[in-house]
Each structure stands twice: as structure tokens, then as C-alpha cells.
TrEMBL record:
Transmembrane segments: none annotated. This is 3'-5' exonuclease. It comes from the Bacteria. The keyword Hydrolase applies. GO terms for cellular component: cytosol. Residues 52-222 form the Exonuclease domain. The keyword Cytoplasm does not apply. GO terms for molecular function: 3'-5' exonuclease activity; nucleic acid binding. Keywords: Exonuclease, Hydrolase, Nuclease.
């Protein structure tokens, strides 16, 4: 990406974050989101190995962020190319309604486990504090971004506006011309000879995305794309 494109993207996101922060200023209930919006954005020009990241995965009751619920968060932080396993978190969220059998078959979170979950606002507050000025990593980010944005609007009254890296997007860049199925998380991990993990557990999927990100970032670095900006979702 050219420097002018870097600058335009940075200014666009910065303006949106400042506008949201001004709108939320003085609202005590919005403090967790306001703190995250007020954190400085990572410099897109720095080597990606010097940036800080947080890999996230969510399990939900369905694919509609406006109607369905988040059931669990899984996240792990990275300091450059180092995955900090001591930062790994798995948090269950209390859903608003009983679970349907079809979704339980996928995520294996039953009604009794879900009933022991925490309030969404509590988990979201801790997640936003952990994210701080980190770059968000996820595989196929529309899911995570859509649900976290809907949750932030419901709990705090504002939008979720982080810097984002999508490991599916990076996979598309590395594996240009591949069939759509080859961009799924397990398929991309197999390409880099990463271990197989059971899917649909938020923490293991977050860790899987973190490991895949490092493999993809190294592959792109070998092609001369070494800055954080080279890896960000455009």
C-alpha cells in the first residue's frame, strides 16, 4: 500500500474514533468503550514484528449480529511474533434466550453451561481493556466485528472501531487463485503444517488464528511486505 493510502486509511479511522469518543464523552456508562476509542492507534509504518495484537474468536447462537447472542469469547495476546499464553482467556456469556439444538450441536455449549455465563457487559468491559491499543486478529472478521460492534452499541452506546487483521484475507493474498474452501481456518493451517485443533471452541480457535497469522505474516515478509500496514484489512 502506498504512503498516501496509508495516510488516508489512518486518518479515516482516526476521525471516526475521535467522533465516537466526543459523542460518548461524559457518559459514565460508556467508559470502557471510550477508553478503547481514546487509545492511540498502532503506527501502520512499523515492522509488524514490533506491534501488539489480540487474536479473538466468538461462539454465537447464529450468524445475525442483530438477533443472535454471543455465547463465549476466546482471546490471546501477542507481543510481535510472540504468543503470550498467559494472556489466554475463555469467557462464557449468559444468553438472552434458550439455546436452539442446531447451534448447540456446533459449539457444544449447553443450556446449563450457558446459564453459568457472565453478563455480556462484564465480559465486553474486560475484553476492551485487554484490547487497548492492540491490533485485532480474527479469521473472517465480519463475524467478530459485527457481533462486538452490536454489543458495544447495546452496552455502551457507540461503535467498535479497531485496527483489524483478517487471517482469511491474508490467506487470500498468499494463496491467490485458490478455491474458496482452501481459505477455511483448518485448510490454511494445514498449508503451513500447523497442528490440527478441534473447532468451535472460542479459545482454541483464537489460538489457531494467532498461529496462522504468524505463519502468514512471515510468508508475506518474504515477499517484502513487512510493515503492519501491509497486513491490515483494507
Amino acid at each position: 500500500m502506498s504512503w498516501s493510502a496509508f495516510l488516508a486509511a489512518h486518518l479515516r479511522l482516526s476521525w471516526r474514533r475521535r467522533w465516537q469518543a466526543r459523542r460518548l464523552h461524559g457518559r459514565a456508562a460508556a467508559a470502557p468503550l471510550l477508553a478503547q476509542l481514546s487509545a492511540p492507534l498502532a503506527d501502520r509504518r512499523q515492522d509488524w514484528r514490533s506491534a501488539r495484537y489480540l487474536a479473538l474468536d466468538l461462539e454465537t447462537t447464529g450468524g445475525d449480529a442483530q438477533r443472535d447472542d454471543i455465547l463465549s469469547f476466546g482471546w490471546v495476546c501477542l507481543e510481535g511474533p510472540e504468543i503470550r499464553l498467559d494472556s489466554a482467556r475463555h469467557r462464557l456469556v449468559l444468553p438472552r434466550r434458550a439455546l436452539n439444538e442446531a447451534s448447540v450441536t456446533i459449539h457444544r455449549i449447553t443450556d446449563d453451561r450457558a446459564a453459568a455465563g457472565e453478563k455480556l457487559r462484564s465480559v465486553l468491559t474486560d475484553f476492551l481493556a485487554e484490547l487497548e491499543d492492540r491490533v485485532l486478529i480474527a479469521h473472517y472478521t465480519p463475524t467478530e466485528l459485527g457481533f462486538i460492534d452490536a454489543a458495544c452499541r447495546a452496552c455502551f452506546g457507540g461503535a467498535f472501531l479497531p485496527l483489524v487483521i483478517d487471517t482469511l484475507d491474508l490467506g487470500r493474498r498468499v494463496c491467490a487463485g485458490q478455491a474458496p474452501g482452501s481459505l477455511r481456518l483448518p485448510a490454511l493451517r494445514a498449508r503451513y503444517h500447523l497442528p490440527r485443533y478441534a473447532m468451535h471452541h472460542a479459545l482454541s480457535d483464537a489460538l489457531a488464528a494467532a498461529e496462522l497469522f504468524l505463519a502468514e505474516a512471515e510468508a508475506l515478509s518474504a515477499r517484502g511486505r513487512r510493515t503492519l500496514g501491509d497486513l491490515l484489512l483494507e
